[in-house]
Structure formats: C-alpha cells, structure tokens
Amino acid sequence: MNVVPDTSVVVDGRVSERVEDGTYEGATVYVPEAVVGEVEAQANGGRQTGWDALEELQRLVELADEGTITVEYVGERASEDDIKRASAGAIDAIIRDVAAEYDATFVTSDIVQAEVAEGKGIDVEFLEPLEPDLGELEIEEYLTEDTMSLHLKAGMVPMAKRGDVGEIEYQPIGDEELDEETIREYATEIVSTAKRADDAFVELSEDGMTISQVRDMRIAVSEPPFSERIEITAVRPIVKTTMDDYEQADDLRDRLLERDRGVLIAGAPGAGKSTFAQAVAEFLSDAGNVVKTMEKPRDLQVGDEVTQYTELGGDMAKTADSLLMVRPDYTIYDEVRKTDDFEVFADMRLAGVGMVGVVHATRPIDALQRLVGRVELGMIPQIVDTVVYIEEGDAETVYDVTTEVKVPEGLMEEDLARPVIQVRDFETEVPAYEIYTFNRQVVTVPLDGDEGSSESGVDKLAKQEVEREIQAATRDRVEVDIRGPNDAIVYVSDNDISHVIGKGGGRIADIENRLGIDIDVRTLDERPSQVAGGSSGDSGGSGGASADPAGEIVTPEITSRHIILPLDDGRSGETVEVQADGEYLFTATVGRGGDIKVSRGSAIAEELERAIDAERMVTVVPNE
C-alpha cells in the first residue's frame, strides 16, 4: 500500500496514529518535500502547527526504523513563493501531483483538497478533522478566583498576578521551574482549542507570537526569535461589574442616555478601565441601544447582544468605515493609544456615533491632553464631553467638557476673549481647568492653583510668556513680577532697558499688545531685595542670576534643501527657541556642527522663510 499524506494530517498526527492501529502497517509512506518545506517554514515562524508537524515526521521515522512502515521523501521542495501562496492552493497542487505519480492513496483532512483530488481521479482517503477534548486547559490548574494573569516561561517558576482590584501582587505560584517541553505542550493545547472550540478563536498569528481568546482568557504564546524563550501569558478579568457598582452611577446613567456622548475612560494600568467599559456597554445595550466594540485583541466580557469587532485588514480605520454602515448608537473603543486611534475615534464621534474610548492616563486631565495636537482644539468638546477617571476599580473623578468664548480666568482685558475649553467637576460643577491658546501655544491652566504655591496657573503662564518676550530683546537676565491679572513689572539690566523699551516705547508697546498685559520696565537694581529672594525670584526661564544670555541674533543661510541657522561654538546639543522679532516660531536642538538645520518644505521652514522674507530679526533663545 502506498500512502501520500498532505500537511493537514501530518499536523494532526493522523498518519502515525493509523500506522499504530494497523491500518497502514507495512505501507510505504511517500512524504512530499513540499509538506516538509511548508511545516519547516511554519516552525521557523514560531507557529505551533509547524512544531506539531515536525514531531509527527519524527514519529514516522521511528516507525520506519522499527520496520513497521517504509518512509521516503519525494517530489519537489516548495519554493518561497509556493509557501506564500499556500492558502491559494500552490502547495496542495504539488502534493496531489506526488500522489498521482506514485499511484498512492492520498490522505487528507482538508475537504477542499479531497474534492479536488477526487476530481482529478486520485484515490482519496478523507479523514474527518479531529475533534479534540475541549474541556479545561491544563494551564487553568494554576488559576484561582483572584488570579488576574498567569505568566509561564521556560526555565522559570510559574508566576501570577493575584489579589483584589487595586491590590494586585505579582508573585510566584510554584517552586519548580518549567521546562520547554511542558510549555510547548501547554501552547499546543491552547492553539488547538482556539482553532476548534466554539467559544474560542485565534486573534493574531504572526512569526513568534500567537494570541488566542479562549472563553474569558486572552492567551499570548511567544516564541523565539520574537522572545528569547517560549512564554505563555494568560490574562482574564477577575470581576464583572454593573453601573450600580460605581460612584455617581445614577448621574452617569442619565448622562449617557440623555444623548449620544463622547466619553473617555481613563486610568492607570490595572485600575479597572476595561471592567468599567464592559459595565457601560452592557448598560447601554440593556437600555435599548445598538452597541458594538472595537478591540485588538477582543477581550471585553460583554453579552452576546454586543458584537465585538477587531481590525479589518489590519486597520481600525476600515473597521470604523464598516461600523458607520451599520450605524450603532454607541461604540466601545478599547484601547485608544496611537494617533491613528484618536483620529478614528474623532471621525466616528463627529459622524454622530456615541463613542466610549479607553485610554491610559495617570491624571484625569491627561486623557484630554492626549487629544491636544491630534485633533483641532476647538473640536475637542464635540469629540469628548465626558471624562471618567478610574482608580482602584471605582469612578474617582468625572469631568464635564464644554466650550465657550470668554476671557480666560485670571485675565481682564475684553480683547483677550477667545474660545476656551471648560473642564468642570461633573458632581460639583466647579471649574477645574481651562484649555485655550495663548500666544500661539495651547495651554492647560488649573483654576485652583498648585498646592503649596501662592501663584495661580494663570500667573505662572503670564510670567512665562512675559519672560519669553522680554528675553528676546535682552542680552542679560530678566526677572518678572506679576502684580495683577493684567499688570507686570519687568526688571532688566541697565544696558538692556533702552533696547527693551525701544524707540519711542515702540518695542514694549508691541509686546504689551501681543500679551494683553501692561508692563512696567525697571532696572534690576530697582527690584526690592525681599522680592528678589521670594518665590518670584525663583521663576522659570531666566530668573536666576546665573541664567544664560538672552537671544543670539543669527543670519539664516538658505540652501536648496535646508535653512541653516549658524550659532556660536559650544552650543551643540542645547535646546533652544527660534524667534522672529521676539515672536516664538519653534523649538529645536542645536546639531553637532553648532547650527540648526530645518528641512525646506516643512511647515516650520515655510514659517521661517516668511519671517526672513519680511526681514524680521531672527534670534535663538535658550529654552529653560
């Protein structure tokens, strides 16, 4: 009897099984080199199926040595292109040709392969795919009710994160080191179960990394060359909550149902963000909303009525486009990390879909700060109107985000009115932060000031901006005292005072107009000693007596590819600001050659060229 197995039965171990039960005893097994090439590529890529197949080939050789069967390797070896086109049937065709050439029984558990072979007149034995025992995984023996994650690595004792939410501890859970063979057995069982169980699936399969979802466990198997040793990491939720389990639950429920919202759920790793997101998803679904999720990997523990989506074609933007066609009322986006994620979140929100995003943040305000620069500032309240900060498993802080045109808190002049993002405590309605543009920069100002400091956030901001403007017109140190919401005193050296004031007071008048603040210019000798020793004397920027000189006037050189700003020797590696007539343009790091190079065609270069064309004075100021 002649037998030619294809890759599917080699991976499953079906050939040796039928030799041992006597079905193929005395047969000649022709193993196509195309099968060997395919499984070798799988093993080199870290896929468990490749290792399983190599073990089966070794068993066949052992059976041949015992005289039970004869094994011959025949046919052409699969090329790299054939392996890449394996899913299109390139390797299957080579294997069928081998079966026809040797007048052998073609053995497969691939129904498509069997049907094609029969159509070509080849004798086929179709073996039903194995239905493995899909009970508990062996690694589940390590799990207890309070185990959040399991960490198994070859050569290490088993480790786990255990404890209550907010009190998780990483600890050893065994005394004996695990060997590589044991870890591989665990990995084989995990991947096999993920492929065949109804409540499991393979989320990601790449060279060296396979991520599976088995019931409520997300299990990652990493192998060389991706990791230095084989490792299994299994993560699962240890609590499932409802909205009733959180502070401010009633108000949050009313807010979510009032209209479609843009919500960011923020918190540190392990704080319970995803657990809260699951509670929100199920609450919204129970309230009659169509709810979908966008996850990579899909591991939110939500009910069957909530459909979970992952990347479509490796791109969440494609997933978003598809979701817009089915028009969910709310979409849970877990997790929003990269710029592309924030852009997708914003696009869906602006398209009218209620969005709930999960983000990492160590403070509540940091969740909003991550949007700054990624989306237009004025659009932020339309994209996110609610921030929920989770700490130790509870909703610690909730912010309401709105926008209005007003004079920022602490400033007085009516002509300083501008769009201001108001961030209020949801429970007390007390303003906590304001976000707005000031002197072409986006600033976030805390309205209650820093603890232990007599200066408000606005005072610090004003001092910083006044120092920046005055420093551009001086060669010596600058000290600033903020006397009121729109009043400051600037102290400069005797040599600089006339230059700061300018001809007929023109320069200081321009600075006052730009900042919207009245500035009284005095010499450093006029500054009261008690003030100089106080907190205002320790201001940032150039307030110290040993501060670097102010701005260095430079003559830009324009080449075909760069705008070069030559500087004095010794400034390599220094971080500086580039200004035009005292107006901030950009921040840069001085190169090794002691100059700054800006690539032409960039937005920064275009702005710098406009300043040069207008014959504005270009200066480089230390960024302190």
From TrEMBL:
Residues 1-115 form the PIN domain. Residues 259-384 form the AAA+ ATPase domain. Residues 526-551 are annotated as: Disordered. One of its GO terms (molecular function) is RNA binding. PROSITE patterns: KH_TYPE_1 (PS50084). Keywords: RNA-binding. Gene3D superfamilies: 5'-nuclease, P-loop containing nucleotide triphosphate hydrolases. CDD domains: PIN_VapC_VirB11L-ATPase-like. SUPFAM superfamilies: P-loop containing nucleoside triphosphate hydrolases, PIN domain-like, Prokaryotic type KH domain (KH-domain type II). Residues 534-544 have a biased composition (Gly residues). Transmembrane segments: none annotated. NCBIfam families: PRK13764.1 (NF010335). In the N-terminal section; belongs to the PINc/VapC protein family. This is ATPase, PilT family. It comes from Halobacterium jilantaiense. The lineage of its organism: Archaea, Methanobacteriati, Methanobacteriota, Stenosarchaea group, Halobacteria.
